Structures
1.
Amino acid sequence: MTSVQARATGALEVRGLEAGYGKIQVLWGIDLDVAEGEFVAIIGANGAGKTTLLRTLSGLIAPRGGSVSAFGRPLRGLSAARVVRSGVGHVPEGRQLFPLMSVRENLDAGADYLPAARARAGRNRAFVYELFPRLLERERQLAGTLSGGERQMVAIGRALMSDPRLLLVDEPSLGLAPALSASVFAALEQINADGVSVVLVEQNVHQSLKLADHAVVLETGEVVLRGTGSELLSHPRVREAYLSL
Amino acid sequence: MSASTRTRRTRPAQFPWDLVGLVLLAVAVAFAPDLLKALFGRASVSYLSIATNALSLSILALSWDVLARTGQLSLAHAAFYGAGAYTTALLARHADVPLWIGIPLGGLAAVVFALLLGAATLRLRGIYFAIATLSAAEVLKAVVHHLPTGIAGGNAGMNVPTLFRPEFIAGQMERWEVAFLRNEAYFYVYATLLCMTVLASILVQRSRLKHAFTAIRTNEEVAGVMGVRPARLKLLAFVLSSVFVGMLGGVEAHRVGSVLPEQSFSVSTTVLALVTPIFGGLYTTLGPIVGALGLSSVQEGLRRVFSDGYLIGYGVVLVLSILFMPRGVVGLVGGLLRRRGKREAGR
């Protein structure tokens, strides 16, 4: 099996990352590399530490040990507001939109507080609307009145407005009908094709491994398997534990 | 039409109701004293005083609301008010600082205290934040109590010179007109301070700060991943909120003619600061002002009908309004107007 660590450099480099909440340690020495333009999936059961890993990468949780750097710049100790300025966008779990703001306002909020992203807001908004034409139709609708799929589109769109070079996406298909989740995955593929590196945390193992260049399997806060998407799709342990085959 | 060309279209510019409202407010207060005098004659002296109290409550409420927009339900308003009042009074007593400098310095003292308090309470949330901010006024009150009497007057407080002393000119005016002139001058000072507070609130609402404050209030983590710096903006809100209430404290020290620890750091100042925007409508410029005018009118009306027992009626009005108008007067009226608009559009 090819080691992700051996091949990849560039967008993200994580070494021995440890993190947790209060007295509970969740991540135990995670190593992860994402090359520029690469699509990496992180899979694992509930409670494996997937969301904690993304939250630590984006500066929402302070790591207890190890190192993180994005595009050669160390991120450890930086606040979320500074991490996003380093080109790392985060689509949080559960969409987390502002329900009383319109679709357009939610999208623009992704760029408004980042001078560099503000300068490219027109181009990025056009890309978001090209990706999700439905959002253009509902531009002035309040986000709280959208369907689950549309909210996910806005959440991804808002992160894209921050002009990221690396996008961290947390459970985008959660609670979506299969057709809608397929369109969300198609959008992520297109975002990646546009040159943005993607780290996807998903419980929809089949879809995410099909898309991923590389993937890691997390169990109780440790990486237990690594490989290319297709390698892991055919790995007996993955097939048994996550694909019920 | 491609998405890129369609997104270039400009959204219809919204009519600047807020700025028009500010101009109307300025015009209304400019003519109010003369109008009251023409309509009510001698009684206009007390009406002007009541109107000045309503302006004072508006400043208190609107300045509190600016901070509340970041989700920080502060109970420190009495502390900022008292810091402003005592700074102005101390400068007048010990340094003979001109009053027009003493009042802005009162605002500045409130800002310095707010920055210290804001930095110390940044990580606190909910009830812990509320308790910490509530104790701020008590701490300042204790400090003032225990300072040597020669400095801050201790428990007995200090006298503060009045800002205006109009003189009676025999043959040209009646006796009551002296009081009218004094009240009119104070009314204009309060009105100017209110217009400044309204302008600051409008500028916040029209800038990127509006959504940043909303983001911090509703979901601080998401605000962070959007690039908003919550700590910095919370401190900015503390500054914007405290400067006006600090100056209000300074002006009121001159108007009342004294500062007392119990009065300047009174919990009732904090309670009024938060009850009024809740009654009028939170997180807006209009809501706290509507709340202040509404509550002042209700209070005055009840006082005239029930005299001593009016506070019971006042309490009932507050409880009913919180039960039946959870989004305040502005939210209720806005909802009714929107429903009516939809009905008419459906016809």
2.
Amino acid sequence: MKIAVCIKQVPDTANVKLDPETHTLKREGVESIVNPFDLFALEAALRIKEAAGGEIVAITMGPPQAETVIKEAIGYGVDEGLLLSDRAFAGADTWATTAALAKAIEGLGEVDLVICGKQAVDGDTAQVGPGIAQRLGLPHVAFVKGFREIDDKHLVVERQMDDGYDVVDLPLPALMTVVREVGEPRPPSLKGKMRAKKYTVPMQGAVELGLDESQVGLAGSFTQVVKVFAPSHSGDRRMLEGSDEQMGAEVIDALVDTQVIMVGS
Amino acid sequence: MVVIIDKELCIGCEQCLDACPFDALEMQGDFPEVGDSCTLCGSCADVCPEDAITVPEVERAQDDRAAEAKGVWVYAEVRGGQMPEVVAELLGQGRRLAEQLGVELGAVVLGHGLNGVAGELFALGADVVYAADDPRLAEFNDDIYCKVLSRLIAEYKPEVLLAGATSIGRSMIPRVATAVATGLTADCTGLAIDPDKRLLLQTRPAFGGNIMATIVCPTARPQMATVRPRVMKVGERRDGFQGRLVTVSMEDQDQAATKVLEVVQALENNVNLTGAEVVVTGGRGVGGPEGFQVVSRLAEALGGVVGATRGAVDSEWIGHAHQVGQTGRTVAPKLYIALGVSGAVQHLVGMQGSDTIVAVNSDPNAPIFDVAHYGIVGDLFKVAPAMLSHLKQLRGQG
């Protein structure tokens, strides 16, 4: 089975702080990491390969330094990697991103399964996976949380829903996006790390993918950011005073007075 | 394509570096260099004291769909015969947008055994209901749902399409946007109309919820957005209103490739955060798994549900099902009590819609106090038990 996994390099947004004065982001010391949800995608690929055999290719799109996430994937045990990098890709929305990723996957030959993390933590759109599936004409299941059956013709997966989960039969070739419940990522192996050190990451740009500059990046995007601002918060606030015990009792009184909580009559 | 910096005018003050939400600028010697993550949002140009930064116009392919497209549509998700609350919210917001644009509000529903659904959609604000009722749509399968909805869009050409940012919406709608070749904005928390350009202004948290971004889709149609549940207001009901019902027929070759074998209704650990009227959340300040005991005792006394921050979940003090925030659940209960929660922006975006917010934290500078209605600077292990005992006293249980 040939599996393609799409991964993304993201800033470690969990550790981004806002400057309370200027309401801008403080970025000093914010590192680039592999999107945490993509680690679950890599883990899912490794487990499926263990069950059904085959080969895994990790693909990323980003600036040249994003090759580090491919090396990291090699460390986890992925067979090959591919970096899509081109100045023309800059500013791509999810439409323009899936244009490049879908072309790259087509270029790999017969791919049986494409796996993406459920979303990237910097954009949080969850749009790229289903978008690629549509472009490639593949069926997809999003938010997969577990596997019931794995063979080279189909998968039976558990799909997370708002009110529980569905068990879905997914014939291959297909795409799926995965959530953290698919399994804790294993640590990189020593052998993998050694291989990653020596591994030269192949790189492709718009020309290699056969895409015109008008189809990628900002020019190839349908959406446009027109304004960026700090979240606003309402200012109607009362700070309580006194001892911890007094404040605890007082806030309950205030909530009862304003009928937020009921204590019976 | 990136912003252009005029090195003749630039004084190297670095204000643009701080202003850039996408971290696209970096000093190279005396001048900033623009990296690939530039989105031409113009934040840098706004703060440049020397007007040294120009935002180039992006040349986009001509698209005549904007002239033809008309009407606001809502995708009315149905699962197991039930419509989630977000459908009513979408119709409430859709109604306001449609009135501003002076167009009709349509609702699309796909499923099987949809008796009574159209009437409910009319009551919730729809002028027109497009209903596809077919056994092949009984279970949710992305490919066939996408095919039917895309075909309707191609035929009726709405200018706006809204869907809930639910598991179903976030799985299927990106596929639909790709199929009809248009832009899609995920998980919006604000929607408005630019009356001059007739554009949908779509606002959402970006960058892990640390900033808000307003996004438009200038030329392609429909302008598509998924909308976060529990943010938009439901409109006034008009029971008995009879709109136009359009019955959608399927084609013979419409078959789903995927197959739903089993539907398991089970909320993980019975945590129903999004439906709760009271949420009591513990953050890193609770100190460990034992610290959640005081959180759950207070939640129980208030008939509420226990929430947790990403920090507490990542430390494995409590299960992921409890997580509130950008990567967890969005909640908007009547009462939200935050114990030992510092208030990272990615957490705030998931709870700031709550009616009343009480924050208890030992750090007076914790950002959670910015959104709180009642702020208590103190030791949560003393304050929370005091709240609990006073509550019991008032209820005559003490």
3.
Amino acid sequence: MTPDEIREEILDILENIAPDEDLGDLDDGVAFVDQLELDSMDFLDIVMELRKRHRVQIPEEDYTELASMASTVAYLTPLMKDLQKA
Amino acid sequence: MYDTIIIGAGMSGLAAGIRLAYFDQRVCILERHTTIGGLNSFYRLGGRDYDVGLHAVTNYVPKGTRRGPLARALKQLRFTRDDFALAPQIGSRIAFPGVHLDFGNGLELLESEVAAKFPHEVDNFRRLVARLIEYDDLDEESFQISARDVLNDTLSDPLLIEMILCPLMWYGNAREHDMDYGQFCIMFRSIFLEGFARPFAGVRLILKNLVRKFRALGGELKLRSGVERIHVEDGRAVGVVLDNGEELQGRRILSSAGLVETLRLCDDVTEPVESRAGRLSFCEAISVLDREPKALGYDRTILFFNDSEQFHWRKPDEQLCDVRTGVICSPNNYAYDPADGQLPDGVIRMTALADFDRWSNLPEDQYRLEKLRWYDRIVESAVRFVPDFRGHVVDTDMFTPHTIRRFTWHDNGAVYGAPEKRLDGTTHLQNVFLCGTDQGFVGIIGSIVSGISIANQHCLRD
């Protein structure tokens, strides 16, 4: 998957986790928690959804890499580059 | 081989089951009873539907609110607000001799009532609210400090303290007389800052949705499947043996049976486990009326009463029940969607404190007689605070602590579990965990959050 495809996938996951959030104005450089109503349970869900959908394993010490959209995509790009977009 | 075996198909077990099945685990929920729900179940009698447990779903917040336990529970289980079809309360009351405080959803009405009836206390009351909003749910250290100490520190009028404690203890305090400060904060928020609601169809709607989702995700639910023991080998649970002798293997076990009840199931525990269950249980007197309570001039959703200035929250001393305090609930008095129409009957439910041992030790014919006698006494006590509806009763039912024990298998018929909570959900075994009332959260949304958070913490991260 390309970084753009990964970004789309993360948006889809966020929409699934937090259907009431307006994701249209998401600023990729700003932390999710500063613009969305996400708690630690939601972050676990991003990790779990990635595992469920793409078998991507993210160790607990790397959860901080998922702070913003930009850092998430950067972190996932090497892990997901060989995956095909579903 | 299951990834997780869940004991008990109540709110917490079903919620945990959904989380685990959603993330592709093989999950089996085992329930001894013939139906689901546990402490929040339902039954049908004489052609009528009754709820057990649920007077109100607490933690209600208006649609669109993204914070708080209700939003979190829905989000985690991938439900929408409409799935629970919650209709808000009309208005509730705390009634003590000569003074009452009305409250609705959100703090506004209660605050103005405190200002009107305890004007010297309103600033203190605001300080109390500010303080408990700051309380962190996961702060185990201050969870157990005395709520009465905090209240005595903050408020000066003993009557106001008793009036505030009354609904919070009634809806979720396993401890006698005093309350853990952590539990106090959780209950205060869920009742006074958030509020009450009910689905038109009652608790069965929520349960039905939970089960439907669990099954759609591939989860297995086995009713009439009591767990006789948890089989332990080398410090790990390896599976369960059912009452009928069938054996199931699992990598871990999540139990909503209660802490002591679960320990007793483990076959590595050979010493008798002393009961540490709460001593508080209830009787409920249900009256079906020939008209809506509103037609009799009664429009409160929930009314908490106490007939003296001192609120007594203890197991009854010398009698089967203590009717000096009680809860009166009318499922008719919610703001249902007009499209739903009205409930088929007027209903008033009244709850009183009851002594499990006394009820359980009665011979059968006397048990039946005492049920009739105490129905009358409970109603007699309650009509001091609500219009006398006794001329309009067309049907009645009554359940006791004995009934609760019989259908939930919780020691003492304890509705809010043990006074000592196991907030982290762990047991002496590395792969057996607790959810439900003994883990800490109570109420419908609380139990759901309990199942979710223990599933997240202990069952999903490997």
4.
Amino acid sequence: MSGVVHTNTAELFLVGQDASNMMGDPAGVCYPTSTAEVQEAVRWARAKGMTFIARGAGTGLAGGAIPTAGSLVICLTKMNQIRSIDVARRSAWVEPGVLNADLSRRTSRHGLHFAPDPSSQQSCTIGGNVANNSGGPHCLSEGVTSAHILALEVVLPSGEVCILDAENSLFDLRGAFVGSEGMFGIATAIEVRLVQNPPHVSTMVVGFASVHEGAMAVSAIIAHGIIPSALEMMDAPITRAVEEYVHAGFPLDAAAMLIVEIDGLEHSVSHGSLEVKDIVHRFGATSFRVAKSSAERALIWKGRKTAFGAIARIQPNYYLHDTVVPRKKLAEVLSQVSIIAAQEQLQVMNVFHAGDGNLHPILMFDKRVDGVMDRVHRAGSEIVRVSLEAGGVLSGEHGIGLEKRDFMRWMFTENDLLFQQKLRSAFDPEGISNPHKVLPRGSGCADMSSIPPGSWV
Amino acid sequence: MSNIAGRFQLVNEEDLNTCVNCGLCLPHCPTYRVTGEDIFSPRGRINLIRSVKHGDLELTKDVVTALDTCIQCMGCEPACPSGVKYHEIISPVKAELHTRWNLRDATLRCGLYVVTHMRTLRFFTSAISVAQKLKVFPQKLPVPKLNFRQPHFNIDAESSSKREVLLYTGCVMDAWYRNVHLDTIALLEALGYSVQVSGDEYGCCGALHEHAGFAQVAEKIQSKIPRPTNSSMMVVNSAGCSASLKKTLAENRVVLDINELLHLHIEDLQKILVRQNETVLVQEPCHLRHVQGISQEVKELLEISFTVTQLEDDGLCCGAGGSFSFSQPVMATAVRQRKIDEIDRVIDSISPHSVHYLASANPGCSSFLSGCGFDVEIAHPVSLLAQSLRPRISGGGQ
């Protein structure tokens, strides 16, 4: 085993990072190609007294894939085969390193796709989606990853392999495993549910003169009983930044922009679109456009899904936040977010899943400026605080990782945390699988050490 | 090694800062796709370059390998939402790394010397063609079937058309693929152009040298390319060369890739091309799709005469990469295998034996793919279009 563990500094430096601003310090990295090799790696780490961490594409934003000092990174990107597709059952067995977008591309000729579509879907892996219980714009109507996992083959921290599913085990533990951020073991094969590609789709781009009006329209659409397949909002600064890059024809004069997508049978799509048009106009829409072709629709989604990257055109660093608030509090929390950013003299942009109240305020900065990290840190905490005060939660889809770990007590009681720790211990009694994540320090004896060097949250 | 690391200072800090580590480039990088390892990804390489530049990381053998194995296909650039100018980061680094001497490197230097000396290149071409006839030339090498003598240009000298165009003939393109030039001339003349050929005076464009990291040699070659004033438009039918010449001659003359020029006349072509009952699979050269942004144009042109199928791999590189397949054979072969698997998958999904041609607009890709015993004929899109010209108009290329 030691022969295939890479320990050169360059590689360790790279697998010590993900898409967050944190940095870890692993002792080795390996690339297993089968369940047996993952078992071997886990057993090897255990025997050496090392902790281990599963890694996919490293696109996470909450530091869930940042290895703690001295751990073995088990990188699953070489396990990238789609083992089987069952068209009749609408399911597929895939390995954890299969890319989210590749899965939908491969199943498209059967008229099927994997519903969760995080913005990083072209790069992120299904294994990572399982670990973070990933969402995405189209999860509004289809549900997040946990609603699409039929079975899991898991290498437990003990090195044993078990199957988690609804049919063959005493307890259905899929719900516990999905979203466990790599702390319960490593999924080595995943049976996913595939959903039918919609026969008709209507994608609308609506401009508003204020964020408040846009947010009110979002609430009204849902209150009216319409569940769009996606309902996204972008504020003026991010719309401008994105438009410069994608040229999707976004309304540059609007203070806020909604992307509303309705899919289904032809009649219900046309009826739903008319209702949406009616509602948004009642809430003062300043522009309304329907995508005329699939190319136009693809461009709109490209703009939405690569929005955060366009920030580099403004500032070299960003902190992409992730909290959830009740829909009817959207407008209120958004204005608080802009006040917080102004107080800390930071630029902020908003691009988010408005339909389910999942905010993504993006704080922009240049980390080379003295003291800026402290301001970013303070603004981040304040955003969490106002979101929770509005009745929201810590994270919508990025996960807790290291980023939100120390905020857990703001939301959960000691008792809540204790039971979470007990569940974790049931899977991983020694605390060797991705330790020091999610559960705050002191909530369990196994998680006492500090955040890795270089991290700032 | 440390003095080389010092020269990483040439990489612009702002270019490095544009990368926010998001990872959206990963699936668009052929070497990451085949390895799944961060060290062989654009994000990883940028991180390494930044750290070496800042003195946080030593320029170890692993770092050099990571940088040497970048094909420079530029697939990551259009995929990057932050607009990272990856070529600005990797080019100076590649140039600095090229100070080693070993057998492979020496052979590469010889090869790159030959392409700038047309008489020598033609001599070797004839010699290889004899070896191929005698079946003593290794079939595995990425060399297409060559002719002992090249067919002559047959230019319509009587043409008094005001639409003048200069066909850039190049080095390997002329020695190995003269037929593509004849087909280009046939199409352009059918469209009413008066065509001149650049000939050996223009020679190599230096793209291969620049790509391989021989920046100074490339600069010298490029400075020798004639720059006449008030000149006609130049058309280039090798994607790698058109990308390079557009840059070199940016201030001197209009340079168009042949696919670009033909696409401007798509309506005229619809009148003069006949339908063929055959299917073409398009392989998109990186320097056409990623560097010049020409993609759907080729498909639309071929659709005039053929049923066209595309690969579903976002134009991922085939591994040829100029001289990359020679200098990094292991990585290049792995990348090529992925391309072949993708081609096979698409062909199988239609029905076997239903694809007649693989169209590729770059000689490097064509020869590299021809070296792996494909049973589908590889052809330049221009040749496929030329064979669809209505017989009464077809003049050249006979």
